[in-house]
Amino acid sequence: xxxxxxxxVRSEELIKPGRLTGFLAGGLWPAALFLGAxxxxxxxxxxxxxxxxxxxxxxxxxFSQYWLAGYxxxxxxxxxxxxxxxxxxxxxxxxxxxxxxxxxxxxxxFFGMAAREIDARPAFAAMAMLSLLTLPQxxxxxxxxxxxxxxxxxxTSLFLYGLFRTLVRADWQGYLIVGVAIGIGMxxxxxxxxxxxxxxxxxxxxxxxxxxxxxxxxxxxxIVGLVIVLPHALWLRGNLDLAxxxxxxKMVEANAPHGIVRVVRALGSLMLACIAFGAxxxxxxxxxxxxxxRRSLTAGDRWTRLLGLMMAVGLLGVVFVILFAGTTKITxxxxxxxxxxxxxxxxxxxxxxxxxxxxHLKRFVPVFIVIMAVTSVPLAGKxxxxxxxxxxxxxxxxxxxxxxxLKAEGxxxxxxxxxxxxxxxxxxxxxxxxxxxxxxxxxxxxxxNAMKGPVLAIWADGARPTGTPQIDLSSVATLGLTAxxxxxxxxxxxxxxxxMQLNLGYLWLR
Length: 510
Hints:
Elements: H1 3-15, H2 19-24, H3 28-48, H4 55-63, H5 77-89, H6 93-118, H7 122-131, H8 141-145, H9 148-168, H10 172-186, H11 194-204, H12 210-214, H13 218-238, H14 240-251, H15 259-289, H16 291-296, H17 302-325, H18 336-339, H19 342-352, H20 361-376, H21 378-384, H22 386-389, H23 399-407, E1 414-417, H24 420-429, E2 435-437, E3 455-460, E4 487-492, E5 501-509
């Protein structure tokens, strides 16, 4: 009896103790349905909260007005997907939430498809998919406020699937998938670029797989990737400072030390980021498999060597960035493309040590359910308990009520808002009105003769309303409009204690 037959028999034994475990042991699609239900619940929880946006959601809401080759420090893939959803179903909290969780589901599905290329047992693919829940970057963080990171996670899983398919079957579809994944990844986040480079090195180190790099079909990979990246690459040529300044600024702390002290500090930050990324996964596997886990650390084959080398080369690339780019701070989200294979790597190590990991699915299912429940609670909990804790999230901002008060005074033809968060929220509350962020105007004002109403200028007015305009309106001067006296608007936070209020200033230009 071969390994697959033995695995199938054992999976039948696994079905008996629990219906859910037996259902998940069916493989890729049962696990996808299970995760799909989890993400539907996540969407429902988000829609239960007030109609105000987090920072990333506000950015997507604002940028959904424009189809551009580039929008700023982040590549545009997620923006394009978001814009497609808004174009079809309109701007709403639902249309801002749906793309993220669809991409996240695809990340899990592509990861399961990648695992299935290595091990055809259905329960193994399900185990690999669900093990991603042990990574906070795949479970907890997307529930809070991520967009572009989710896109690069999806692209990474798609890349792994295409890579493994190419190594196993060497068909043209595999090369095509790798090209699509590279293209999407490169226009999702720039740090994705180290992943195909690390895969190239890892594949080259295997004598048999090396031939895949010399296959003429690899030209298909290059062409497809280039076609996808080209529009943004052309934009990038003239906007390099805009595209890189934000990312580099986040990676370099203010008043950072120089020389060897900086390097040591940055390497320490990298080490902490690695721990934050994968410590929970390693701990769960170590507790679940006990002595077998320790024994598996010395086991392996060409697949574990491939994944191990890819992760190591990716992290080595980060070290080079630290040495040559003046970096002082690394966070775990920048490691996503390199460390995402970690759960699959650990599962394969256990399998090569002679442990049938599918037999442990029943033991893991309660862990997965607890992670799902725990990660669904914090955002809603922080929002609903703001009045008790005094810690308010951006979702507590009473911006829907602000919009109602402003609509009572008139309908603006254009809104100029100070800051990305306020501008994005105004876009949500006034879906048919063009909104401009005065701090980062991407598009100009409509022509003066095309406007049928006044311009509304709005800004955050500090701890107490002062009525003093705190917004740059110099670009409005060309319209020849006259500003009304500035006004103040103060409203209590949603689910607050009534004492803390959001203070805004605004004026009309007619």
